[in-house]
Amino acid sequence: MNENIVRADELVAGELKEARKSKKLVYVVAFTAALAGLLFGLDIGVISGALPFIAKQFQATTLAQEFVVSSLLVGAVIGTLLSGLISRRWGRKDALLVSAVIFALGSVLSSVAPNADILMAVRLFLGVAVGMASFTAPLYLAEMAPQRIRGGLISMYQLMITIGILAAYLSDTFLSYGGHWRVMLGILVIPSVLMFVGIYLLPKSPRWLVLAGRKKSARAVLEKLRHADEVEAELEAIEETIETKQGGFQLFLSNKQFRKVIFLGIALQAIQQFTGMNVVMYYAPKIFNLAGFTSAVEAMWGTVLVGLINVLATFIAIALVDKIGRKPILFAGFCVMGLSMGTLGLMFHFGMQTSHTLQFIGIAALLMFIVGFAMSAGPIIWVICSEIYPLSGRDFGITISTATNWVCNAIIGATFLTLLQVAGPAHTFWLYGGLNVVFIIVLFIFVPETKGVSLEKIEDNLMSGKRLVRIGR
Ligand code: BGC
To answer: 110 FRET partner, CA 20 to 30 A, in 60, 99, 272, 445?
Structure first.
């Protein structure tokens, strides 16, 4: 008995020591994630405030405005597809450094664009960095982080995206008083340079170093990051992983269960986008205008409120994701989003612009929608997509699902203004409300609960032929 207690004490002491070690690691890794996630968010968020001024200066048509928004997203699709190759050949760290350089160059170039066409081209280029960061940063994090804090870090990464969006809205708002859209875009060179410096100082991923045949360097990195007894075991595990690492695409062709989970990842990321979140992210000032808040300043501050609520509600997910599980949170989120979009559509239908009461209810619904997304689909879709793929097809799976996210993101960005013109705001928001209701059904039929289940168990369940909805049991 006593011996057991002594052992337990030793274990606790060991764990504490380890916790102290990984604390430093968490700090360094989270800082990196913060920088890449922040840039991701800044570049997504900045356009909503800049767009009205750009449209005015370049006399841009609706179509041209949609292209200015969505060219970045098309670039992100390209960046995601490229990053699989680059991060494998040059390593995750160098891929992130390349994206930081593109972020910096793209920020400067977009701020001096002489016309809408060049601006679209530069935003396409900038998008490559956003796509590269969105693929590589979580992957780098996953490879650097000890297993037990991996999930938390992914949600933290989403938190940083939302902080980036909010920071962009705030800077847009301050700069909107003078209509300085060029400064709004150009100022992002500062966090890009910070990102470059931060990442430059970080070690290379040990997993990639083993892949590149540099086992000695990998050991040296692990020795800095892990408890002494963990190093050899982890090195071995990495080597085993690499042995089974070969073909995501071959697996896709040969294995039906893997194909199914690839389609699940595609569906999940499409669902995240078709909730309609980015309609609000990109066009919030426009929605406030339509709702009767006609001054630019009112619309901008309304947009800042949207960004702030997006940040705050993300904490709900961080607090609950490992306690009550992914599915209940997603269910609650889809219900809130469906109801909110339905209500917003109804307020437009009744003529929101003409009554303060309707305006109040409509804006409350819009803000509730943001809460619904940020507490659920925002972080949790990224979390599930990082959990469901078997090891040998994980890179492939994440490439496909992340690329889907950006393709759907581009479709949303490129169609909203046209939808408004053709169908009107009420029907547009009802459409998104209806989609959220459909997603509840998909959630129940296909999505597994992955809380508290090891990745190996999920992989076993999947490969032994279980239905997708059961692979987390
Ligand atoms: C989504 C982005 C979205 C952001 C909003 C992310 O999870 O992938 O498309 O703009 O959340 O917070």
So the answer is: 272
Query: What's the CA-to-centroid distance between 20 and ligand 1, angstroms?
Result: 32
- Supply the pLDDT for residue 132: 92
Structure tokens at 31: 């800082």
Nearest residue (CA) to ligand 1, atom 1: 378
* Centre of ligand 1 from the C-alpha of residue 138, in Å: 14
pLDDT of residue 1: 44
Gap from CA of 447 to ligand 1 centroid (Å) = 20
Is the CB of 281 within 6 Å of ligand 1? yes
CATH topology of domain 34-202+244-470: Growth Hormone; Chain: A; (1.20.1250)
- Is the C-beta atom of 277 inside 6 A of ligand 1? yes
C-alpha 378 – ligand 1 centre gap (Å):
6
Domain ranges of the chain: 34-202+244-470
What pLDDT was estimated at residue 309? 97
Q: Is the CB of 130 under 6 A from ligand 1?
A: no
Q: Please give the pLDDT value at position 274.
A: 98
- State if residue 133 touches ligand 1 by the CB under 6 angstroms criterion: no
Query: Global pTM?
Result: 0.84
CA of 400 to the centre of ligand 1 (A): 17
Series of mean pLDDT values for 10-residue runs along the chain (473 residues): 50 49 61 79 86 90 86 93 83 91 96 95 95 85 70 79 93 85 93 92 85 90 82 82 67 93 97 95 85 83 92 92 90 98 96 89 96 96 87 82 93 89 95 97 95 80 94 89
Residue to probe by mutation, ligand 1, list 278, 311, 337, 409, most atoms within 8 Å of CB: 278
